[in-house]
Specification:
Elements: H1 11-23, H2 30-43, E1 47-51, H3 54-64, E2 72-76, H4 81-89, E3 93-97, H5 108-114, E4 119-122, H6 134-142, H7 144-147, H8 155-160, E5 164-168, E6 176-177, E7 180-181, E8 188-192, E9 205-209, H9 217-227, H10 236-239, H11 260-271, H12 273-292, E10 298-299, E11 308-309, E12 315-319, H13 324-336, H14 352-356, H15 365-372, E13 374-377, H16 385-402
Parallel strand pairs: 2-3, 2-4, 4-5, 5-8
Antiparallel strand pairs: 1-9, 6-7, 6-11, 8-9, 10-12, 12-13
Helix pairs in contact: 1-11, 2-11, 3-4, 12-16, 13-16
């Protein structure tokens, strides 16, 4: 069975992890701090904190901004549940927004329609690694009309003076817009280093701070280090210094720090990210485009425009003219041909919890249309040209056999 997304663990990673284990320091320490610095240099943002997940990063930033009961946070209806779950954790209300017909990302004009005096944050999601239109989204929240609606409830909100853009960039490290990398495209971006991501630390994530003046991003970073370690004013590394054992708890914080074992993997992967990982993923995407672009029914994913370039995290193929049931039959047929595929994502209003909250799928027609005909194909560093051809042929044969009459065949 050809797998969907196995991890790429090479000898350099093994050696660095072993060196970490032998160093005597395996929790948050020098490797985590170096990884933070390297990420900041790579992305071009102002400061970065590494955590145990992207989900933790999204939630801690909502809490830092003071989001709570009575507030609204705009998120795309087409995303993984974590994007909306963290809003619920804070006691705020997720406001779902429809997406684009071409690239799966949140539609800026739909965002405009959803903004109210209760809106505190917009959370765009860079689906499949393709960055959202941050030029339009940043301009929207900075416009006089929208800023006039904003009601600040605390010092952070007063300093910003507008809606915060908190990007769910879980898929998009290394993606670019106007010559700048994700992490530096808006106020705050949150990366995921989960096992299936382009750049992995097994689990883990990072918050890329890029807040405008008058914010001191380094000061925000230092606060987040405390808030994500129980509210303790010294981490374990600082406490180990001679005579520096005494600590204090300045708030009831959380526990979501990254370990040096995780950072060790990330340090190795980041060094080879531009030279090896991204070029291979780009090549695999090009192979799929070549093989599937010969059909009339394949809607290929958008990965490059005049000013935006993907990180090629997923290959979300859409099949024109089919319904959800047909898509499911096609997927099963592909599995039966010993090729693993997936689906990204079931829109939030279709999920039991959110449906029971009163969200209705019919309010987000484009999100449903994208979902009903999408199949994610394997995309990982170890795929060969022959394996990509195997996947493409399995998809083509499954579509030919299972699509309803009217779908063109090759």
């Amino acid at each position: 069975m050809l797998p969907f997304s196995p991890p790429h663990i090479h000898q350099d990673i093994i050696d660095e992890v072993v060196a970490t284990l032998r160093s005597g320091w395996i929790t948050t320490g020098p490797r985590t701090k170096q990884f933070e610095k390297d990420l900041t240099a790579y992305c071009g943002n102002k400061a970065t904190i590494c955590l145990n997940s992207a989900t933790a990063g999204l939630e801690i930033m909502l809490r830092w901004f003071g989001v709570g009961p009575g507030d609204e946070v705009i998120v795309p209806a087409y995303t993984y549940s974590a994007t909306a779950n963290v809003v619920m954790h804070c006691g705020a209300t997720p406001v779902f927004c429809d997406v684009n017909p071409d690239d799966f990302n949140i539609n800026p004009e739909e965002i405009r329609k959803k903004i109210t005096a209760k809106t505190k944050v917009v959370m765009p999601v860079d689906f499949a690694g393709f960055p959202c239109d941050y030029h339009a989204i940043n301009a929207l929240v900075a416009s006089a009309e929208i800023k006039a609606l904003f009601a600040a409830n605390n010092e952070q909100q007063k300093q910003l003076g507008r809606i915060l853009i908190l990007a769910d960039a879980a898929h998009s490290i290394g993606a670019m817009m106007n010559g700048m990398r994700t992490g530096s495209l808006t106020d705050v971006s949150v990366f995921s280093f989960h096992a299936v991501k382009n750049l992995t630390t097994a689990e883990g994530g990072a918050v890329a701070l890029n807040l405008p003046a008058p914010f001191d991003n380094e000061a925000v970073y230092k606060y987040l280090c405390i808030a994500t370690l129980h509210g303790q004013n010294k981490d374990a590394l600082a406490k180990m210094q001679k005579g520096n054992w005494r600590y204090d708890i300045i708030e009831p914080g959380y526990k979501c720090n990254m370990t040096d074992i995780m950072a060790a993997i990330g340090l190795v992967e980041l060094r080879r990210y531009e030279s090896e990982i991204l070029p291979k993923r780009k090549q695999i995407t090009a192979w799929y485009n070549e093989l599937l672009g010969q059909t009339q029914w394949a809607q290929l994913p958008v990965s490059n425009t005049a000013n935006r370039t993907s990180s090629w995290h997923l290959y979300p193929l859409r099949i024109r003219g089919i319904d959800e049931a047909t898509r499911d039959r096609i997927m099963q047929d592909i599995f039966d041909r010993d090729v693993s595929v997936n689906m990204h994502f079931i829109p939030l209003p279709l999920l039991k919890f959110y449906h029971e909250q009163g969200y209705r799928m019919e309010d987000y027609p484009q999100a449903y249309a994208n979902y009903a005909c999408e199949i994610s194909l394997p995309l990982y560093e170890d795929l060969s040209r022959e394996q990509v051809e195997q996947v493409a042929q399995a998809v083509i044969r499954a579509v030919e056999l299972n699509a309803r009459p009217g779908i063109p065949k090759i």
